[in-house]
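Researcher: Sequence recovery benchmark, item below. Answer with residues only.
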């Protein structure tokens, strides 16, 4: 008795049956997957996400800035100093001394770049690699200070070619 299209006659060998996608092929595939999973388990590798991340490194210089027995604020003095200066700058801006407050914010970022470059361990001030942190803090600090010094009315710093750039770009 023969079946419909795609069905064997029931007289084929096991190899023919496995190639046709029958339960024998499925069982062999499951056995191979189980063997691979067992090997992974023995090697300590899991397909699931780990509950605790392992193997990620701290940023270079991301250790404590003070001894481990010191209280938390003392261990994180670099980020607290930069953050405090930024907060003071924001208070100055709120008190309507915008230029002084903005210059203070830029100077705080420049101080953060200097601390990140000079100190071997700066706590949470270290976010990325030392090079990237110094470049990021430094460029942002310089740009903020320059923009604060060029702010209208009565700019402290005038850069002549910027007027031409603005004139040609705004037309």
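Model:
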């Amino acid at each position: 008795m023969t079946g419909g299209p795609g069905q064997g006659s029931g007289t084929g060998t096991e190899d023919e049956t496995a190639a046709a996608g029958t339960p024998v092929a499925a069982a062999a595939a499951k056995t191979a997957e189980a063997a691979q999973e067992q090997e992974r388990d023995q090697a300590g590798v899991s397909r699931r996400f780990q509950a605790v991340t392992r193997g990620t490194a701290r940023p270079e210089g991301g250790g404590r800035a003070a001894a481990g027995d010191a209280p938390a604020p003392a261990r994180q003095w670099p980020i607290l100093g930069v953050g405090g200066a930024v907060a003071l700058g924001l208070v100055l801006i709120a008190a309507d001394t915008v230029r002084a407050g903005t210059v203070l914010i830029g100077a705080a970022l420049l101080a953060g770049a200097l601390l990140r470059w000079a100190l071997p361990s700066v706590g949470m001030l270290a976010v990325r690699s030392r090079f990237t942190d110094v470049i990021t803090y430094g460029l942002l600090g310089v740009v903020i200070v320059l923009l604060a010094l060029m702010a209208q009315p009565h700019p402290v710093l005038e850069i002549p070619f910027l007027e031409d750039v603005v004139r040609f770009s705004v037309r």
